[in-house]
Amino acid sequence: MKVGLTFALGSLFLAAPHLTRAQGEGLQIPKSIAAGDGFSIQSAGNGKATLYIVGPNQVLERAIERGGTAFFAPGALQNAGHYLVVLKADDSAAKGEFDVVAANKPSELSFFARPSRLPIGLHDGITGAVYIFDAYKNLITAPAPVSFELSTPSGAKQTHVVVTRNGAAFTEMDSTAQQGSDKFVARVGDIASTRVVGQVPGDPCGIKMTAQPSGQQIRLETAPLRDCSGNAVPDGTIVTFTETYGETQTTVDVPLKRGIAQVDMPAHNGATLSAASGVVLGNQIHWEKQ
Amino acid sequence: MKKGWVLAASLMIVTVALVVAGTVWPIPSATAYASGQHLLQSSSTPEEAVNSLGEAIHAQAWEKAYLSLANRGQFTEPDFVHDLTGYYPSLLTYATLDHFDTRSLHSSANDADIQLKLYWSTVVGTSPVSRDLHVTKNGDQWQVEWPIQKVSVVPPQVIPVNYLRWDVIYRGAGDDWGMQDVEAPHVRIVDMHPVQRADGVMILGELLNEDVVPAYVSVSATLLGKDQSTLASAGSFDKISHLLLPKQVTPFLVEFPDRTLAGVTGIRMTPFSTLISASADPVIEIDNEQLNPAPGASLTGQLINQSGQVVNVAHVLGTFYDKSGQVVWIADRYVDTALLPQTPVPFDIHIPEDLARRISTERTTVASFSAGGVQ
Hints:
By secondary structure, chain A is mainly beta. Chain A is built from 2 helices and 22 strands. In chain A, a hairpin with a 2-residue loop joins β14 (180-188) and β15 (191-200).
């Protein structure tokens, strides 16, 4: 069946010059329709014929009586693009063409937000790109305003409105000084898409460590670590404690738990104790017997 | 037709002759693996007694090895086996003895001290273990006194752990194509330094996880020639701590064997990172780190597992700096015994003699692996 249809369509295309001449033989076709809309094609003459509509990813075939109107229900053609119409009868053939364009009503947004996680206080650190599609996933190329809104947990908002070009709109936003999960929303009409952007604290602004005896050992403990904007450095961040005593050294990588890092180390009189996290150094303590 | 019969008969005769020869005069390695009467048959000298014990360990003939010991009344056979292969799952649990060396330390008419060096073949390479054995004469035979190492037992207790863990949810197959995936961790090479060694080019450096989530990391390097053409590419393999918690730094070493820096116009470094489910425990203290000068330059210290969880394999990485703070060498060592809670385990890392003089400071890190998951 498919082979027969292909052969017939192939024959029609090979006979294109003839069909071009036959186009004036009474096929009335709309110049363009919106994807998913119903439409009709009127033909002249009489007798049985077969109407073919060939377009992107879709072929319609219908047996009609010439001289009448063939109606196509809404949803018959869904893919935007250029379509060819061929009316084939035993004694003649006619050809026409028309366009199916995306419906103007947005139905779906594809929203790319990058990155999903970034440090606080980055200028233009967050990017958002939107592509607008109709109900049949055709890209809507007609200009449309897109509202981008980035809101922090505290309620602060940044809003940009960008008009699409060729179906896409793009914007950049700043990450704020406050850590947390921001909501990044793109909206076109009543269609919206939301992404979550995590704003995370930067490096610790400083490390303040205290030491006190703990049995036969020294208990080292940091004050709660914060970045330079006052955000708490997240738990799990590694603080490296180092004790240098004579020619020997003791080190421990300790994760922050509940905001602080704590460890017991050997008590050596005259030892130098220090703390660091990544590239940030903390204070040094010279331990003397208490 | 006749030639075929002659050939078949010849092959059969040769085969039978070889079987008979192999049975009557077996080679030493075959003897070692056999559990027959050849094993442990001769202990007429201290060296023979130790060699015989080494062959029994090589053949995993534990009972024969145990029965040959002079002090076997002090411990059981399972104690002896666990002393060799570990009480808890570790690198030695699944290792086999590749070979062994002996070295006489002291000898007299009735006793001797001999060092037995066992080279265990583990999944991460050869792991040498030395034992100093006292050998005594008993009649006309010599017997080894095995220096059993009793494992210090941690008293039963409950160690509270504020368990911190990260899990990752990636985008699903059914998600919209615009849906962003979780961002890979941000890592940064904070130091990189190529050195020319006799056995090739080494790229030394350090990598920092500057993100707030754990990262699985690796580093690859590409040597570039004229016109930016690629001369060679290699990765850090296991000369790196692959799991980096937030703000943690690992050294890395990329080796290019048999390469020289001559002709290298550039080096392209490619750090790789991806999210990984991980926990912040166990915490391992590295105690008494000490740089020992040449000859026999090394970094020694002790690992103390501060958590209540048994660490099955520990990988110690040493980063060595000169006076200006530049990385001059990176070396590593796997600890072949499990780290029990609060129990010190020694380690030593060999430092090349020619570099030992230049080394001023060091930094030691530990990557750990526990049964049931990474870290």
